[in-house]
Amino acid sequence: MSQFTAAFRLRNQVEELPLAACTTMRVGGPATVLRFDDLDDLAELLGAAPRWLGKGANLLVGPDGVAEPVARLGPAFAHCSIEPDRDGGARVQVGAAHDIGRLVATCVKAGLAGPECLAGVPGTVGGALCMNAGTAHGWTFDFVERVQVVLPGDRRPVWLPRDEVPAVYRASGLPPGTLFLAAVLHLPAGDAAELKKLSSEWRRAKAASQPLTERSAGCIFKNPDPAQPAGRLLDECGCKGLRVGDAEVSRVHANFIVNRGAADAEQVCSLIVQLRRRVYESRGVDLALEVQAWACPPSVHEPMKGDGPA
Ligand code: EPU
Predict the structure, then answer these.
(1) Which residues are part of the catalytic machinery?
(2) Mean per-residue pLDDT for 168-179?
(3) N or C: which end of the chain has fewer CB within 10 A?
């Protein structure tokens, strides 16, 4: 905490917290956590080399927590405004702290097509930009026109047009440590009733096939390719119900680990390694993490060694 001035600490609500309290999986050790709400404090914050946190919906934190301060964007970055264009569509400017579900609801109601593909995805717009969050119906960068970011090593925000963001499946493609502040979405006109129907259907389908009411970090692994979804591979390898302590592979969807009560980060990481080994040994596929892993043992992501299937 001492790396910040007293004035900074006061303005930015700096506190010591277990990161378990800041993630949907509810595991992870301590850190200095702050709420960043004023760009005038950016230089001091960047001097402390922070990590950026949204709603922690796609994050696994190791048992010892992290040494760097962890910054969450405050209400000053939760804005959302719509500017209609001549064709019935609009540009939506949205801050990184805005909730994804609220953005989807706003656009659906306004008859603006695109974000409905994210119906049911938890988290902040900043998290969605960082991860290029998506579903089978589309990804975040499908409808982003430009993003406002602070690139690692820079001290000021810049706007990058979409074609300078090398987004791919589940990654913005920008360097690790990039801070996302806002985005402008360019959305065509759609039929509000039809968008509402679609988004409700997709939300319902997600709730029926994923353990959304339990504590998890969403899908643990990336799909190695669209024809080989990680959930199906894990299911076929008999992983549903595998358990280390209170960390359990969901019986609803095998690519989710759920915290059944008092799971800790060590249990979750140990289960992840078991799952990777099982799929590697029986199918020869080295599953890569989809969740962001902070200060977790290297075994959760280093390449699998040893024999694949005989
Ligand atoms: N499957 C199984 N067993 C399972 C889980 C899935 O056999 O336990 C089969 C399903 O029956 C289906 C196929 O695997 O035939 C794909 O499953 P699903 O439709 O559930 O989609 P997914 O590829 O597992 C992806 C995203 C999800 C997103 C859904 C819905 C990834 C890693 N996951 O899941 O995103 O919600 O599509 O669009 O790309 C996330 O990113 O955290 C996430 C949950």
Answers:
(1) 170, 219, 290
(2) 97
(3) C
- Residue 182: beta bridge partners? 95, 148
Alpha carbon 112 to chain centroid, angstroms = 23
Q: Check if 27 has its Cβ closer than 6 Å to any atom of ligand 1.
A: no
- pLDDT on residue 66: 98
Say if residue 238's pLDDT is above 90.
Answer: yes
pLDDT tens for residues 248-271? 999 999 999 999 999 999 999 999
Query: What Cα–Cα distance (Å) separates residue 174 from each residue in 129, 180, 289?
Result: 10, 10, 18
The reply to whether ligand 1 has any atom less than 6 angstroms from the CB of 214 is no
Residue 37 in contact with ligand 1 by CB distance below 6 A: no
Q: Quick check: CB of 252 below 6 Å from ligand 1?
A: no
> Which is the closest atom of ligand 1 to the Cα of 219?
42
d(CA 42, CA 230): 39
User: What pLDDT is recorded for position 2?
Assistant: 64
Place of tokens 């596929």: 285
Whether the full predicted model's pTM is greater than 0.90, yes or no, is yes
The DSSP-derived string for 112-159 is B-SGGGGTT--SBHHHHHHHT-EETTEEGGGSEEEEEEE-TT-SS-EE
Whose C-alpha lies nearest to ligand 1, atom 22?
229
Is a pLDDT exceeding 90 seen at residue 306?
no
